[in-house]
Amino acid sequence: MKLLKAVSLNKKYGMERGWFTRNARSVHAVNNLSLSLESGETLGLVGESGCGKSTLARLLLGLEKPSSGRVMYRNEDYTDWTFSEMRMIRRKMQMVFQNSLASFNPLFTVEQIIGEPLRNYGERKAGARRATVADTLELVGLERRHIHRYPHELSGGQQQRVGIARAIALRPELIICDEPFSSLDVTLRKQMMDLLQELKHELGLSYVFITHDLSVVNRFCDSVAVMCQGEIVEKQSGATMLQQADHPYTKTLLSSVPVQDPRLRKKRLGEEWQPSHSYDVK
Ligand SMILES: Nc1ncnc2c1ncn2[C@@H]1O[C@H](COP(=O)(O)OP(=O)(O)OP(=O)(O)O)[C@@H](O)[C@H]1O
């Protein structure tokens, strides 16, 4: 069953008319891009900085409208839906950000942060909200005592766990993760990847996972799409990608990223592996 589908998406910035934008150069951030995601799939989206990954995420979430092309959720075309029409789909599609702290209201406690989407979607009873928040905290590996803490009283890993808890509070079907663990150290990153994997099985989630880290793709993604200058230049299964990349851009990407399975790296690039150069998260 296709959960999400994008057909010939284009997003151009700087095309608006006005004194401020008149002389600005336009940017073709997403260029004739099509992709689909099956229910239960984890799709990795990799590509260098500025290639359009976050723009694509915003288009898929309906936070921005494409210049042309269509987006569909369970065969429902929501491209032209208004903000309020998007409500029911937003409930099913959530996002985890690179820097959760920046996305939290600093005056909210953990309980309020995780409870906010529940309140927005009609859960008026404080007791029921608190029970769901407590269940959700447990799911992400935080304790009840964290419920009254403010974001700045949490470690970076705990903040990301709260970001995940907020995303799953409404029990969505799809989570779009935009480099959620890039600020964490290797050990924490592995713990968080394991957590997402457990949640996937427990809650039946699908993921679009934006990352620079090819070891994540290898370990976590069922398939991977490589983006270059707003286009998907290659899409394959995660393991195949690291063994048989076709597109020259993907090969460059593979050779420039230090995180790789040492055996694959040796096989792909004919290099001797130096243990000190690897920080594989396995
Ligand atoms: N609101 C905007 N207005 C104008 N240009 C934008 C806007 N958002 C993104 N861009 C441009 O679109 C291009 C793609 O940006 P985007 O943030 O999607 O890339 P990215 O692959 O997510 O980068 P990174 O990995 O660094 O986050 C960039 O050239 C960026 O400057």
UniProtKB/TrEMBL annotation:
<keyword id="KW-0813">Transport</keyword>
<keyword id="KW-0547">Nucleotide-binding</keyword>
<feature type="domain" description="ABC transporter">
    <location>
        <begin position="4"/>
        <end position="254"/>
    </location>
</feature>
<dbReference type="Pfam" id="PF00005">
    <property type="entry name" value="ABC_tran"/>
</dbReference>
<protein>
    <submittedName>
        <fullName>Dipeptide/oligopeptide/nickel ABC transporter ATP-binding protein</fullName>
    </submittedName>
</protein>
<dbReference type="InterPro" id="IPR017871">
    <property type="entry name" value="ABC_transporter-like_CS"/>
</dbReference>
<dbReference type="GO" id="GO:0005524">
    <property type="term" value="F:ATP binding"/>
</dbReference>
<dbReference type="InterPro" id="IPR027417">
    <property type="entry name" value="P-loop_NTPase"/>
</dbReference>
<keyword id="KW-0067">ATP-binding</keyword>
<comment type="similarity">
    <text>Belongs to the ABC transporter superfamily.</text>
</comment>
<dbReference type="InterPro" id="IPR003439">
    <property type="entry name" value="ABC_transporter-like_ATP-bd"/>
</dbReference>
<dbReference type="InterPro" id="IPR050319">
    <property type="entry name" value="ABC_transp_ATP-bind"/>
</dbReference>
<dbReference type="InterPro" id="IPR003593">
    <property type="entry name" value="AAA+_ATPase"/>
</dbReference>
